[in-house]
Amino acid sequence: MRDFVAKTAIGGSEPKRDVVGTLTFQEREDVALASVSARLGQEETVKAKLQTVCGIPAPEAGRWEKGESSSLHWLGPDQYLCEEAFAGPLELARRMEAELAGMASVTDQSDAFTRIDMTGQGATGLLQRLTVLDVEQMQAGAFNRTAIHHVGCLLRCNEAGTDFSVYAPRSYAISVHHMLIEVAKAL
Question: What single DSSP character describes residue 55?
């Protein structure tokens, strides 16, 4: 039998943490993600149910909402990304699927995306070099799709100018992380 070794998306045995100048990058392996897509005719019912299940309203376009233990991100019309602390494989997706049975399609995204938190002065300048978004105008609560180093990513603004989270596809996490660090070194 082979001896398999679990690694994070960026390739370490522990989540990677880098400090470059005033910026800190932290890989997050402790979050669970599930996408929720309302079925035709169930859009308003799903919004109401998400409010009950997550304790926060479904976000408007380009926004995310943070609750006590969950956060909801707008992915597209009547599509949301739910995030919670990781409690076990498929735990979040199965719970959401049970709560939204017949109303929405739920897909586990925990291993599909890797979250990289980026904090510190200079975050805006770094992202201006890597995305087409007007990150200088992004306020806390903004959430958008964008490309970083030719890779489709999700970008969340936690605090204007200094605190962002990048959701990169897991298979491109090393590439996105590498580009974030290289651009940070060049600031």
Answer: S
